[in-house]
Amino acid sequence: MKKYTEEDLKEDLVNQEYEYGFYSDIEADKFPNGIDESVVIALSKKKNEPQWMTDWRLEAFRIWKSMEEPDWANVNYEKPDFQAISYYSAPKSKPKLNSLDEADPELLKTFEKLGISLAEQKRLANVAIDIVMDSVSVATTFKKTLAEKGIIFCPISEAIQEHPELVKKYLGTIVPQTDNFYAALNSAVFTDGSFCYIPKGVRCPMELSTYFRINEGGTGQFERTLVIADEGSYVSYLEGCTAPARDENQLHAAVVELIALDDAEIKYSTVQNWYPGDENGSGGVYNFVTKRGICHTNSKISWTQVETGSAVTWKYPSCVLKGDNSVGEFYSIAVTNNHQQADTGTKMLHIGNNTRSTIISKGVSAGKSQNSYRGLVKINKNAKNARNFSQCDSLLMGDLCGAHTFPYIEASNSSAQIEHEATTSKIGEDQLFYCNQRGIDTERAIALIVNGFSKEVLNKLPMEFAVEARKLLEISLEGSVG
Amino acid sequence: MDNNDIKIAFDAFIKQHAPDVLTAKRKEAFETFTTKGFPTKKIENWKYTSLKAVLKPNYATVNTVSDNTLEQVEALLAAKSETYKLVFVNGVFQEQLSDITEEINVFSNVLKASNTEINQYFDTISDSSEAMVNLNTAFASSGAFITLANNKILAKPIELLFFAKAETPVFLQARNLIRVGENTHANIIEKHINLGEAIVLTNAVTELFAAASSHVQYTKLQNDSLLSNLVDNTSVSQQKDSIVTVNTFSFGGKFTRNNLTFHQYGSHCDSVLNGLSILDGKQFVDNHTLVNHNVPDCESHELYNAIYDEKSTGVFNGKVIVKQAAQKTNAYQQNKNILLSDTSNVYAKPQLEIFADDVKCSHGCTIGQLDDKVLFYMKQRGIPKAKAKALLFYAFANENVKAVKIPALRNEITHIIASKLDVTFDLEV
């Protein structure tokens, strides 16, 4: 039998088309390109929003106009032309669905291709899915079960109509309009997203998940997610994305805000697989996301992310550990191949006493990609007994890629204990040899080793995602092995 | 002192100095500096370090040396150990106190003759993107100019002593160019000593060229008075099989900024960066290191330890760049910090930029305190708490001190550490 060599592997990878690169044909109602105040107002009107929301958007827009696009990240890309983007695109008709049978068959087909048949999920996985397709929710399931517990899980546009007091109270408190360039833009033009409220003492009985997809060509997608866990509650929230193949760069600038009140716990998991562009680096999604959560007393926020897609990723899920005894966690795998660039990491801000944070970040770079970890651990002056452990490991495959770490550590309290370690290496030849010797071919051996390398993070994912994530890793990773 | 004051000082400097081989370079460097100005916190490399307070006094750039001062320096030197000395007072070279040879010389002696070596080496490896380096180049006229021949083991260490004594604040620029020949072994010590009551700001640039198979140990002992501010820029270029160690001991001074850069140009070199800071009061020390791995099969070892007490602040920024060609690189970096008070601060940023795949690179960074369990264990065995602590601190610091090859210098450092930690060691090393 002919030996399967590295070269074959490389070849395979190059020839391998983006598995989820299809485009579903749904008629869309779309704004003309460009942005100014009238677009923001029209958008707000279109969504039938109350006056305070329109004002909030306009304020954000004014702030955004006064800001400059940042360029400190370790990524190179062609800056998006914000006047060439349409800021609203919705599936034309938005029927209220009671069952899946009423859904657009096109849409159902799309999901089938993605391997997430709604019916299957509904029946087997006990997962309620709020599907965001081109910025507007088309189907929401399991709402009734959740409603019985008092849990609110709906599109944020609906929450603005039906629960304005909650939205008003929390929106923009963690990521204010002034936070950064893309957060300001998102605040002005976000079209939809998810809203989730878990009442006092309630343990959400199922994993909440949303599938985000970018569908219409040339449409920027601006999602806004707000998760509030009231005192003593628990929620596990899953977010996953795949996007169809496109030639032009698509912009994705989402904002996620998490609020964990006293004794609450939020687990937020992401599998990100936006279209990364082809092997020449053309096309692909720009993923500039602001994610931040605040922990009150005794609460916990845990971010888990698997980043395999996007041409350019720029995101730092962060925790503000405000309350005493609060806990922040960040588990991440970022895989880059071909011309992908990822600058990702986290911020842990220790403000309360006895706060703890854990950061496990694994980066795998292959092809001509660049993978950066950028993080901040800050112990405030009055934060007694803060504890942090950080670990960033990078795996390099091929000699054209790069791995970078930019960890910032700032401590101002003598009782703080901080450990940070980072390693960079390639897959050991002895490890590969060991596997080969035992009859495991190189390709599978690599998958095995990489899975082992990422195990610490994969283990943190909810069951439903762990399977998918492992598959994704294998797809993204096979190849240019050095 | 602001950008305008420095312009006046530069014009005066150019007028005063007869044109020499560096005049054109100085003007060019000053122009570059003018466009940048003094570094501010907006620059990523100066994010945690503000020169505002340092630049506040109205510094003089031209100084005189009184006979009194010279006597004082002479008396100090009489007690010093056996070294080849180059003595500078207020930036002026003191030949009668120094041991000049053909190889161990100073800039002021070599500038007049048309020296091709200067053009070949001067300002070639220093970091020209750093405004403080540009500023130094603009004023470069005083400092060590050392050219050691091949195949030699230097009998004694070379000691560069920069004294300052003035009535009013003074701004000094020291410039050193050191070349070590093939297979040559050398030890170099650098000290800055402020004997006066006035504030001193020293902006030093050192370029060190280590030829193939040379062994160089360069020790910076920074134990200056609390009126002193130091910005030190050191760049090292290494050829194949060379081993260069730079030890940076920061105990004194009010404000210290060390920029240390290594460039590896030949295979199988080893770069050792070794730093220890023990600070209290309102002291500030910032160590920025950069190791450029340009070629395959090289190593770098970096260990920076620090103890911070009272209102002191420390910054560590360790950057390792492994270029695509630099396969089989082993780069290790460690930064350990002990915070003793809630008013002390530490900002650490260990940074790796790796473009080659067949490498082993790691960095570790910790911030913490002494282990209570260890202290308890020692107390249980009859060691008083103060002594137990001192022993642990000594052990922590000794990781760095033991790297110093010259016994006399090692002893000197141990004594400084003992007085800094307010303990007595009966450990003679």
Topology summary:
The complex is a heterodimer of chains A (482) and B (429).
Chain A: H1 6-15, E1 28-30, H2 37-46, H3 51-65, E2 89-91, H4 105-114, H5 118-125, E3 128-133, E4 136-140, H6 143-148, E5 152-155, H7 156-162, H8 164-170, H9 181-189, E6 194-198, E7 208-213, E8 224-229, E9 234-242, E10 250-252, E11 255-260, E12 265-273, E13 285-295, E14 300-307, E15 312-315, E16 318-321, E17 327-336, E18 341-344, E19 347-350, E20 356-365, E21 370-379, E22 387-396, E23 402-411, E24 417-426, H10 429-437, H11 442-458, H12 463-477
Parallel strand pairs in A: 3-7, 6-8, 7-9, 8-11, 9-12, 10-13, 11-13, 12-14, 13-15, 13-16, 14-17, 15-18, 16-19, 17-20, 18-21, 19-21, 20-22, 21-23, 22-24
Antiparallel strand pairs in A: 1-2, 3-4, 5-6
Helix pairs in contact in A: 2-3, 3-9, 7-8, 10-11, 11-12
Chain B: H1 3-16, H2 23-36, H3 67-78, E1 84-89, E2 92-93, E3 104-106, H4 107-110, H5 116-121, H6 131-139, E4 144-148, E5 158-164, E6 170-180, E7 185-194, E8 200-210, E9 215-222, E10 228-238, E11 243-250, E12 255-264, E13 270-279, E14 284-293, E15 299-308, E16 313-322, E17 330-339, E18 345-354, E19 360-368, H7 372-380, H8 385-401, H9 407-420
Parallel strand pairs in B: 1-5, 4-6, 5-7, 6-8, 7-9, 8-10, 9-11, 10-12, 11-13, 12-14, 13-15, 14-16, 15-17, 16-18, 17-19
Antiparallel strand pairs in B: 1-2, 3-4
Helix pairs in contact in B: 2-6, 7-8, 8-9
Please characterize this protein's 3D structure:
The complex is a heterodimer of chains A (482) and B (429). Chain A is an alpha/beta fold. Chain A has one domain. Helix content of chain A is 26%, strand content 33%. Chain A has twelve helices and 24 strands. A ten-stranded mixed beta sheet of chain A has the order 4-3-7-9-12-14-17-20-22-24. In chain A, helix 11 runs antiparallel to helix 12. The longest helix of chain A has 17 residues. About 6% of the residues of chain A have low confidence. Chain B is α/β, with parallel strands linked by helices. Chain B folds into two domains: 264 residues, no CATH class; 59 residues, no CATH class. Chain B is 23% helix and 38% strand. In chain B, a hairpin with a 2-residue loop joins strand 1 and strand 2. The model of chain B has no long low-confidence stretch (mean pLDDT 92). The interface between A and B is large, with 36 and 35 residues.
